[in-house]
Amino acid sequence: MHSMEGTSAHLEFLGLREQPFAPTADPAYFYAAGQHKECLFRLWNSIDERHGIAVVLGNYGTGKTTLLRKLLTGMHADSDRYRTAVLGSPIPSWTSFALLENIVGQFGLALSSQSFGEYMETLNRYLLSNRNRICTLIVDDAQNLNKRGQIELLRLVQNLETQQHKLLNLVFFGQLEWAQVLRAAPNFLQRVNMTYRLEALGLEDVRNFIEFRLFQAGANEGGGPVFNELALRVIHAYSDGNPREMVTLCRNALIVAGQMRTREIGYEILLHTIEKTTLPDPERKARVARVVPGAGANRKPRAERVPVGARHQSDVIKQEASVDREQMSRDQKAAQMLLKAAQARRNQG
User: Is 173 left (phi over 0), alpha (psi -120 to 50) or beta?
Assistant: First the structure.
């Protein structure tokens, strides 16, 4: 019984081939909002022109790691042109020598000794021998590099250049807090060619983000789940436009929808998901309360359903949803819906 109600079963019921809201940064599910497109364009320009240092800053969950993997996918597709090393998450306690050791190691260079000078010389020889290729060091979680010695080491490894271009690109993805470290190192900051700050997504991008992921997971083939307009507004309000939090909330909402045997996901399911799967957060709940229609004497909110993949289909479905909000609270209604669904399943069994 448990296997039938497991992940594969609920995705199959929802008309999906696979999980559209997996917690991993899969490039296939990368939705390029306007800011992501601009950031990628600027990154590729900086890398291909070998301008040196590029920095991408943003709060957690704004898509930095996904952008990183998108870059790597493009570089790996043209391995003759690009030579790339990645520091996934540098350790804050690293000395400058330990940082250099890891950089050299990520480029796959063998050393006969372990002196600082030998490491630098080996890296320089490698860059010179690959001057006709684009060599790039990509650093994720760059905010971990907050020591003066670490920043100075990065400046040194990036100094080698020809008359036309730098021999080593440095691309950093870090939290916004890293800006303070950069401002405290003007000698390094002056060498930064490009800085881009990622912001939270707006409501329209949230709508497109969810639609794109569901389409990628096969919703266009099997109908797929439908997040109505009010549900989308709840997701946007609760997550404050943070893609990672949107992914988590949507993933948990699909589980509830699968348990209730419905492909129609309204705000009640989202409210239940928030109540049962997230930590109490009055500020977030207050944001959600502001987007859910108030309980006027004769007021019934109109919810517009736009099927996933509507841009890929010819029909746009609109549904009127009436909610009796005078007799019960939102949380009570969500609990009652789940209770009725559970009773129905028991009666059918």
Answer: beta
